[in-house]
Amino acid sequence: MTLTEYMLPAAAVAAICASKLGTGRxxxxxxxxxxxxxxxxxxxxxxxxxxxxxxTEAGRIPVPMYRVADVxxxxxxxxxxxxxxxxxxxxxxxxxxxxxxxxxxxxYWRSQRAIPx
Length: 117
Description:
The chain is of the alpha+beta class. The chain has one domain. Helix content is about 30%, strand content about 20%. It has helices at about 10-20, 25-35, 70-80, and strands at about 1-10, 50-55, 65, 95-100, 115. The protein has a five-stranded mixed beta barrel with strand order 1-3-2-5-4. The longest helix is centred in the middle third of the chain and has 15 residues, at about 70-80.
């Protein structure tokens, strides 16, 4: 099954989290800890996991790519947990990727390759 969705690289997600949730933590490291299942998450909020690996426009090394809907849901749930509710703007890039397990699309994110559309 092939999906086409807007996705963000890990660095952009870290920057969005820092601007929308505060700089009280290193979001690059927190996202890496969530990918490695070592914690790094806010209490009572499901971890934010990437959907696939892809090469960005300028990069040669594949980086973790996050679905925009997942990032929005994560930031909204963290903001609700912390007690601040405000909408926020951002931009993203559209990618196409194969889903290895349709029942759990985040399960095999390391083996999924995303292609810019």
